[in-house]
């Protein structure tokens, strides 16, 4: 058997000064490195070294002296322990520091200190025989961290002979054994006491000294854990979710309450038992009652009501019907959100609204993973917890305004939620178990589908909610808006009356919108003004009552006569006798709301050649759009202004090219009488409301009509509006948004609307009263457009008959 030669440590060792304990040979400890000298040691020696020798350092126990200067090297203990650095972990928070895992090898004695900066290095003499480097770590925690044993640990370190070490360590070991016996005896007595009161209080571990003020709080926590465990056992969650909860509960019982993960796990389990895994409401499937309820809550919106009633009918025939994914698309203020609330009311379901405008983090939909600090479930799971049932009506408001950022794409996260083939197995990152969303009725709202990703749009059933006609707005105002405003302002119909003719004036002269929000605000302003008059009248009555109490009945009659005379004379302040309601007519409307904001300026704008009226669609509804043109001497350039998009610019170039190619046919000449319209002539096309971006092909026919008016010197009819895309050969192609555009023309008081012939089918959606007030001309080519736009037609030849549709 060959003998193994002992291992010699380096004769020069860098010194690590530690005050966290005493490292003994064969033991392992973690020590924090945050002083300047120790940081330099780690960076200059451990992190840069590549050999085993560079990981050996001398560990010296050091008690910091507050009175000593931090720049000077403190007095060093004579005996230290050579240690092997097993692990180095660094961090910059809250300040730069390292944590070392070191294992003691053998003791050494300092011969002399060779240098002090940047870290101390000493010449050492090895005191113990080291046969081999240790492979396992033996802990010496009993002698390391306890402050009362620090003095004894240093003495043991200084004891070189084995006999001296035995004399010092045996009393310490005997004392430690006695302490362990006492702790075991205490635990045994405690367990016996717990067995006697097991029917009252659950068994709990001895984690602190009995009799302290923490007992009551811990008892409450333990009772809550027992109740939570009972809820898990009695819950109706699926088997997979139940297994996860049981596993997490076992982990929770083994955790100390001081651990941060304890609160996270407890919150997770509380959410799991609160979720409505199998709790649902029963739908009310009375079709007649549902129809009456929808008609009472909302006027018009026939297509939308029809779709809801269809769902109810199918639901009545088939109980396990999956919830549809509906998307209401329309301008603001038409009642998309309120319809969703009415649908929930009709079905007898819970309603929950989720605002998606500006959301740019997919975790808002799918939740955060529980590894993150402050993690929480997504809005879908949180909404189910709030609703308390698994079949609520979820309103995903403003789905077209979702954002996108480095945190992911929430629109992509919604793909799983809004897919009927996938949402029965929706997995939130926080729950990490599947939840069935197939019974949830999802209703999304949007102003436009242009900003919704195609994949998400494909998963939803689009229902267009167009703007209201003037007649519909009047009905909505008197059925819903005026009663609501009277209630909010404490008024009664006996105090204020708003005739329908006044409501029409508000709609036509003070608002220009597809919905009714501005109309609602104007009615609120009227009610506030009337509330002031009513309050002033009550103040006068109270003053009269005080006069009656002080001066007698005769004096009261005299004051009443004076007050009545003053009220009759002061008509400008709308002061009326107390028994008469305040009637809001046009004069009162002007006093309250000011001068009309919108006057019919159509005839004035078209009083000279080179102006035509187009129809445009915006997310806010349809709008009329003026197109103006002028010509001047120049080099044949075409100038376009009004914040136009590329498509609209191309429509302008198409229009001028078609007119130049047909100039002889229509006898169109420039200022010099030349059929080349751009010969020594510049053309400027302007689209007013320059602050608003405009784009789209539907202005093509309007641009052609405007330029034809400019070069012919003839006026376009002031009661005509038009829309349609053009081609280079003079064809008129169909466009979208016909209903909104027609309603905009009707609001503006126009009488004739020119639309593409292939859009004739869209005219069936126009309300009957609007069709009765308007004359529609369906055109397949630009010849028909020009003939309808000018009095007496536009062609010089025999004018072909117009294809008119009086709907």
Automatic annotation (TrEMBL):
GO molecular function, a single term: serine-type endopeptidase activity
UniProt subcellular location: Peroxisome matrix
Entry keyword Nucleotide-binding: yes
Active site, UniProt feature: 698, 741
The enzyme's E.C. designation: 3.4.21.-
Binding annotation for ATP: 330-337
PROSITE patterns in the record: LON_N (PS51787), LON_PROTEOLYTIC (PS51786), LON_SER (PS01046)
Start and end residues of each Lon N-terminal domain: 13-240
One Gene Ontology term, aspect cellular component: peroxisomal matrix
Pfam families for the chain: AAA, Lon_C, Lon_lid, LON_substr_bdg
Residue ranges annotated for the Lon proteolytic domain, each copy included: 606-792
Keywords of this entry: Acetylation, ATP-binding, Hydrolase, Nucleotide-binding, Peroxisome, Protease, Serine protease
HAMAP family linked to this entry: lonp2_euk
Assembly with partners or alone: Interacts with PEX5. Interacts with TYSND1. May interact with enzymes involved in beta-oxidation of fatty acids, including ACOX1/AOX.
NCBIfam families linked to this entry: lon (TIGR00763)
Protein task: ATP-dependent serine protease that mediates the selective degradation of misfolded and unassembled polypeptides in the peroxisomal matrix. Necessary for type 2 peroxisome targeting signal (PTS2)-containing protein processing and facilitates peroxisome matrix protein import. May indirectly regulate peroxisomal fatty acid beta-oxidation through degradation of the self-processed forms of TYSND1.
Family: Belongs to the peptidase S16 family.
Protein name: Lon protease homolog 2, peroxisomal
Naturally occurring in which organism (per UniProt): Rhinolophus ferrumequinum
Taxonomic classification: Eukaryota, Metazoa, Chordata, Craniata, Vertebrata
Gene responsible for this protein: LONP2
